[in-house]
Amino acid sequence: MKNPIANLNKVFDSRIRLGIMSALMVNESVHFNELKELIEVTDGNLASHLKTLEESGYIKVQKGFVGRKTQTTYSVTKAGEKAFRQHLEALEQMIRSME
Fold first, then answer.
1. What letter would DSSP give residue 63?
2. Cα separation, 97 vs 99, whole angstroms
3. Is the pLDDT of residue 23 over 80?
4. Among the residues of the chain, which ranges form H helices?
5. In a domain, 2, yes or no
């Protein structure tokens, strides 16, 4: 019997990181406050998970200004897109193996 979780990516184990990646996969980029509102987490919690994804090379960060306010925008890297698709495929295989 094969290990059903062998191909899952540990970085995406968190439901918050899963939510962040899902949002970024279907949008070209998303602002910090949009992610915070969408996923319903605190600033600190979101920042912590974004940092993990950034350090893994799965998302990229762009800081800028809108008027006088700073705005931080996130988007998926090619490596992040590939890793997330592989994670979803592994989840799908795991679910199918249980049928």
1. E
2. 6
3. yes
4. 15-25, 32-39, 43-55, 78-97
5. no
Planar angle of CA 57, 60, 24, nearest 5 degrees: 100
Q: Do residues 99 and 16 make contact, with C-beta atoms less than 8 angstroms apart?
A: no
Write the CATH number for 28.
1.10.10.10
Question: Token pair of 18, please?
Answer: 């899963």
* 59-66 vs 30-31, strand pairing mode: unpaired
Domain that residue 19 falls in: 10-97
pLDDT of residue 99: 76
Tally the domains of the chain.
1
Nearest CA to 50 among 87, 88, 23?
Answer: 23
pTM value?
Answer: 0.91
What band does 97 get if pLDDT is binned at 50, 70 and 90? confident
Query: What residues have CB less than 8 Å from 28, skipping those under 6 apart?
Result: 75
